[in-house]
Structures are given as C-alpha cells and as structure tokens.
Amino acid sequence: MPFVLPVLPWADDALAPVISANTLSFHYGKHHKAYVDTLNKLTAGTELAELPLIDVVKKTTGVPDKLPIFNNAAQAWNHAFYWESLAPKSGGMPTGKIAAMIDKDLGGYEKFKIDFANAALTQFGSGWAWLVLEDGKLSIRKTPNAETPASGSATPLLTIDVWEHAYYLDYQNRRADYAAAVIDLLLNWEKANERLG
Ligand SMILES: [Fe+2]
C-alpha cells in the first residue's frame, strides 16, 4: 500500500497524563489508521496513489468530486503532523528562533498561550488549531474538519487536534483543559524550530 501509518517515536503512555495511553491507542491505532487505510482504498489504481501524501492533499483541495479523497489524505497528513507537534516532557516556554519570532510577531509567549488555546477552544465542532509561518511571519489559525493550512502557501509549524476523539476519553467536554495541557507540557518546540529551517 502506498500510504503508510507513520511509526510513532515513543510508547503509547509517553504523553500521559496529558494524553493517556488509552486515548493514544484509539486515536493513532484506530482513527489515524482508518484515514490511511481508507485513502489507500480510495486511490487504489489511480495516479494519486503514485504521489507523496502532501501532493494528494494539495491536488484534491477544493475539488468537489475528490472530497472523500481529500478528507482522508488531509486527515492522514494532519495526524502525522500532529504527532510530530508533540513530544514527551516538552511544551512551556519555547527556545531558539521560534521564541524570538513569537515575541516579535505574536506579542510574546504569554499572549501566544492564550491565543493558541483560544483558537483550539473556539474552533466550532471538529478541526485543528495551527501555528503557521506565512510571508515570513507567524500566525495562529484554526481549520474545520480535515482542512489544513498545508493546502495553501503557509508553512505549518505546530498543530493541536481538537476533534473530540483527541480528548474526550481523558477530558470529556473540557477541550480548554486539554489544549492548555498540550501547550504547557507537550508542544514540540524543537520540531517547530526545525520546521522554520
Ligand atoms: Fe484526530
């Protein structure tokens, strides 16, 4: 199969207690895997199956008759990106280039924390909160369902999955608590710096 579920670099319980092993096993092993499996089925024997995942996302963005492929490709991409946006014993104050850019573009880390959590909280229904780089500046975004800034010209740097499957087993309806804990304890600033280049 051309599209594969990426192997996670840590154990199921590595993100606990912010994200439990139970949530991780369902989220990664069932939800993420289902997007990859469905994408393989939907693209089997087509030219899309020959392309890198990100190209499938870009090529199917906004194409009505390719919506099921877009949804599964974008969710496969977003989830791989989400796992890389997290790391055990991480989060809190950023360091390096991203820290300086947050000060310059987003009013400092304390303001970033509030604004990023607010993007996660106010995304109505399922979706994603994003830290992106566009035209040399950082900004915070949110997208519904499978939509992703990777479809356009922005460079995504970090994301938080705010679909209920990402937090409901651990936090029930308390999405704000989930987002705050991810920001404080899991955001992978090292990866964000790497993505800035
Ligand atoms: Fe998810």
Structural features, described:
This protein has 197 residues and is mainly α. The chain has two domains: 21-85, Orthogonal Bundle (Helix Hairpins), CATH 1.10.287; 96-196, minor pseudopilin epsh fold (3-Layer(bab) Sandwich). Helix content is 50%, strand content 12%. The chain has eight helices and three strands, in the order αααααβββααα. The protein has helices spanning 21-43, 53-60, 67-85, 96-106, 109-122, 168-171, 175-185, 189-196; strands at residues 127-134, 137-144, 155-161. It has a three-stranded antiparallel beta sheet with strand order 2-1-3. Helix 1 (21-43) runs antiparallel to helix 3 (67-85), helix 2 (53-60) crosses helix 3 and helix 5 packs antiparallel against helix 7 (175-185). The radius of gyration is 16 Å and the shape is globular. The model has no long low-confidence stretch (mean pLDDT 97). Fe (ii) ion is lined by residues 27, 31, 79, 161, 163, 165-166. Fe (ii) ion binds next to helix 1.
Write the layout of secondary structure elements.
Elements: H1 21-43, H2 53-60, H3 67-85, H4 96-106, H5 109-122, E1 127-134, E2 137-144, E3 155-161, H6 168-171, H7 175-185, H8 189-196
Antiparallel strand pairs: 1-2, 1-3
Helix pairs in contact: 1-3, 2-3, 5-7
Bound molecules: fe (ii) ion.
